[in-house]
Amino acid sequence: MWHADGYVYFSWHETDDGISDAPDFLWRVSPDGENEPERVALPEDCGGGIAWLRSYPDGRLGMRWGCAGPDNQLGISIWDLTRNQETVLIQGVDDVALDSTMTRGFAVDWSGYAHCTAIAPFTVEHGVGEFPHEVTIGNHTWRPDALLADPETECQDVGAMDWPHLLRTGELVVMATDGIPVEYGEHNQPVYEWALCRCAEPDVDQPEVVASGFRDVNGMTVFNDRDEAVVAASYEGEEGLWLVDLRDGEVRAIAEGWFASPSLSPDGTRVVALYEQDSNTVIDLPDDEASE
């Protein structure tokens, strides 16, 4: 995750034989390789695993911990790295996208299945709320917060929305799937088709599908200063990073290969992403895009 301070942050568990399946610690490195990776010491290191990072509009860093807070629950810690101080603790959710005021946004709950997620409005004051209406994606209509509202809900009864981002205008940009498998892959695992959607007023509007046909999605991020997003996924049979125009749905390839967790540089000209599952790579955006 490329943070506002210029460093790329990532979670990694150092072992004798490489990277563990349960990353525990926070590290940072210069995107240009000017320094060796260094561990960022946090006052509370429970060893429960840092599994998700998010850079917030005011320059703070969000981390999903396996033991956030005094009760050692799953949750999101939002840190002021300049003071090495936790400033907000949000328990019981897996990801939270906040607007520029850092007071409201959308919370995500993952069940552990690729297509089985719930999303709901969130405020720092009141916590997780209810999604105000049903949504329709493809041939399926469901409540995006169903899995949060009723834990007994079966995944096959709902679609999913994930990787939410809020623009400065308050518009929601999110990936969504109707939860209906389009095929079955290796080991008979279901494959889902995802769409990149935007919603000008999430409280009242249906999501507008900008571009569809993404499979095996491993992350999405958006530009705050122009109408584009970067998606790590398979598209038209090719794995890669894809630049999507949020105005007309044009999809352009940035790079080929397996990528995950794309994150934009503070100036919006480069992308950093996990590449081929074991390293980070930095990619310059096309000149005509970077100059816009």
Explain this structure.
The structure is a single chain. With 292 residues, the chain is mostly beta strands. It has 2 domains: 1-92; 101-292, no CATH class. It has 2 helices and 27 strands. Strands 16-17-20-21-22-23-24 form a 7-stranded antiparallel beta sheet, with no helix packed on it. Strands 6-7-8-9 form a 4-stranded antiparallel beta sheet, with no helix packed on it. Strands 10-11-12-13 form a 4-stranded antiparallel beta sheet. The longest helix is centred in the middle third of the chain and has 4 residues, at 146-149. The model is unreliable at 19-23 and 288-292 (pLDDT under 50).
Oligomeric form: single chain
Mean of residue pLDDT values = 82
Percent of residues in helices:
under 10%
Low-confidence stretches: 19-23, 288-292
Tally of domains: 2
Give a count of the beta strands, DSSP E runs of length 2 or more.
Answer: 27
Helix count, DSSP H or I runs of 4 or more residues: 2
Residues in β-strands, percent: over 45%
